[in-house]
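Continuing the series of single-chain predictions for the mutant panel. This is the parent chain; the variants come on the following pages.
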Amino acid sequence: MAYIGMRTPKFWPITTRTDGSAITYGNPVEIGPGVRADVAFDVNDNPDYGDDVIIDNDKGINGYTIALETNDVALEARGSVLGWTAKMSTATTPALEYYDVTGAEPPEGGFSFIRVKMFRGTKKYEAFFFHALQFSDGGESASTQQKQITWNHPTLNATGIGCYLDSSGEVKFFRYMQFDSESAANTWINSMGGYTPPVNNG
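Parent structure:
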C-alpha cells in the first residue's frame, strides 16, 4: 500500500455547536490546492504498574493538531478560515479592498480532505472529516527571484476540538471512511457537512 495523493482540503464554518447535539455547518470553503496534511494526535501514555510490570495503560486520545500545506490559500479563505477582517468598498456593488489582520480569535469550523492510496494495484480514496478545529496562519515568507525558481507553499496550523455530538458522553474528533471513487468520497464528505452542491445544468 502506498499513499499517492491528497486532495480538496475544505473548511466548514460552524453555524451552531451545542454539547449533546450534531454540529451544523455553513457552505464549505475551498482552502486551496492540497499538498500535504499532517495530523498529530496527543495520546495519553500513563501506565499503571504492579509486580514490577505494566498492569494497565491509558492510551486515550486527548486531541490533535494539523499542519496543512497548500499550493495557495484562496483569497476568500483568508477571512473565512483565519478570521481576517475584510474591508469592503462602499460602492453600489461592494468589493473587497483589503484584509485587516487583528488579534481576533479565528473561527471554529470543520475540516475535510481526501487521501488517495494504491492498494494491490487499485486506487482507494480515504475521506476525513474533522468535526471542529481552529486554524492559524503558519507565517508569511518572501524571497527574491533567483536563477532557479524555488517553490514556496503556505502552511496553516490547526488545533482540534473534542465534541460531544450525541448523548453517548463520548468525545469525538473526526470521522473516516474509504471509497472506490473520488466522487463517492466527496459525496460522503458533503453528507457529513450537511451540504448539497448546486446542480450544474451546463
